[in-house]
Amino acid sequence: MHIHILGICGTFMGGLALIARAAGYKVTGCDSGVYPPMSTQLQEQGIALIEGFDADQIKLNADLYIIGNVVSRGNPLMEAILNQQLPYTSGPQWLGEHVLRQQHVLAVAGTHGKTTTSSMLTWILECAGLQPNFLIGGVAPDLGLSARYQPHQTHFVIEADEYDTAFFDKRSKFVHYRPRTAILNNLEYDHADIFPNLDAIQTQFHHLIRTIPSQGQIIRPAQCEALDQTLARGCWSNVDTFGLNGSWQAHDIDGSSFRLHHDGVEVATLNWSLSGRHNQENALAAIAAATHVGVSVEQAIEALASFQGIKRRMEIKGVCRDIIVYDDFAHHPTAIATTLEGLRRKVGPQRIIAVLEPRSNTMKLGAMAARLPDSLSSADIVFCYNETQGKHALGWNASQVLAPLGDKASTWTDLDKMITSIVQVARPGDSIVIMSNGSFGGIHQRLLDSLA
Fold first, then answer.
1. Are residues 130 and 266 in the same domain?
2. What's 440's DSSP letter?
3. How far apart are CA 236 and CA 226, in angstroms?
4. Single pTM value for the model
5. Residues annotated in a binding site for ATP
6. Residue 24: left if φ>0, alpha if ψ -120 to 50, beta else—which one?
7. I want to staple 192 with a disulfide (CB 3.0 to 4.6 A). Which of 60, 184, 226, 367 is the partner?
8. H or E stretch including 261?
9. Which residue ranges are tagged as binding site?
10. pLDDT value of residue 229
């Protein structure tokens, strides 16, 4: 059977392509501005890519068209599919019906930490010998790929995104996954482009909870009011908790180790390469989920001790003149704050320079703009790139929003001039954290080259 994927270079759809091919399907795909890392991963795996959405692609005579949520009405290929009444479906629905139905699905949902927690959980199961299938919204160096499918294996870890499924299915993607083990990492307002308020997101999480069997397991932070409200709408599954006052707790030793407690008893100590309270809580959730499928705490701790992290999650891009340049995906005030607070605990009094591109749909719309100054408070110097034209232009005034930070914050509309200014103020011992959910004009390497 031949499937043709529209929007194949998206993180989810690219992983779906790998899974479909492993399941025995012929897979082709198309996207606009075919770009790495997903384009590179697909090409390395021998999956043919077509640039653009030309209607002539229906001449491929695919048996089924899988539509990514980047595709909307007016797309030439989509219009041809509709006009000729060709069979089509969404990626999440296809995955749920053709792959996940016979799997023990371990889904990781929440506003923050999905990719990191999914990768941790997958690595734990891998080290425990379970050889899990997985589909993750990023590439963990330990795993090598963002997705894997082996039909004879029965555990499937999936990053469960609350973003909408497709232009013809406005439910969250995760309602198609039917998990038996579900991590709900946290819940707050995000995706202002599709959700009017927090209540709308809570409704989607409620729909997810309705699909979890009574013999399944929900793993959630012990303290999260938005999740309290969501579960109060109805919960039919076992619930385990982590974090402050939770069943699973992390007692900090220093920036690179903590003591693991379960039900009030110290059970292990973890020494690892990650930092920050948020990563400790991600680890607690992953450990709890792994134990639900029979992995011992000892196996989980041993796996996490060797876990190398995720690309674009405080990934060191280079060191020059004793200045470390990090790349981080932070695209929401809460994520920005936890990233910088975690780094502050690691570097102590050394200076942190935060370089921010508010690029996500939520940030561009300004729904979270008022929270930015507080989220950046752990940084010593803040540079904000304020694109004024094109699809990434901000709908708010960055200079006015960041005014509470005083002289330590500056906004820029010229990327070259901003890089020059960063180089002028940077000094040995500094940590420069570049935060964006896009490529940010290749700033990482350009900055390292300029520093050199």
1. yes
2. G
3. 18
4. 0.80
5. 110-116
6. left
7. 367
8. strand 257-262
9. 110-116
10. 97
> Domain tally for the chain?
3
- What is the pLDDT, as a whole number, of residue 36? 66
Residue 45 sits in a domain whose CATH number is 3.40.50.720
pLDDT under 70 in the chain at which residues? 35-37, 255, 310-311, 331, 361-362, 364-367, 388-392
Burial class (CB in 10 A: 0-12, 13-18, 19+), 206: middle
* Cα 452 from Cα 440, distance rounded (Å): 20
Among the candidates 245, 270, 305, a domain finishes at 305
Q: Which domain holds residue 186?
A: 99-305
pLDDT attached to residue 43: 83
Q: Is the link from the previous residue into 92 a cis peptide, with omega within 30 of 0?
A: no
- Torsion over CA: 392, 396, 397, 402 (sign): negative
Q: Give Cβ neighbours of residue 416 (< 8 Å, ≥ 6 apart).
A: none
Closest by Cα among 123, 193, 110, 203 to 155: 123
Instruction: Report the C-alpha gap between 410 and 443 in whole angstroms.
Output: 17
> What integer pLDDT is reported at residue 390 of this predicted model?
65
284: closest CA among 230, 223, 228?
223
**pLDDT at 37 (0 to 100):** 67
- Looking at 305, 333, 358, the residue that finishes a domain is 305
- Identity of the amino acid at 145: L
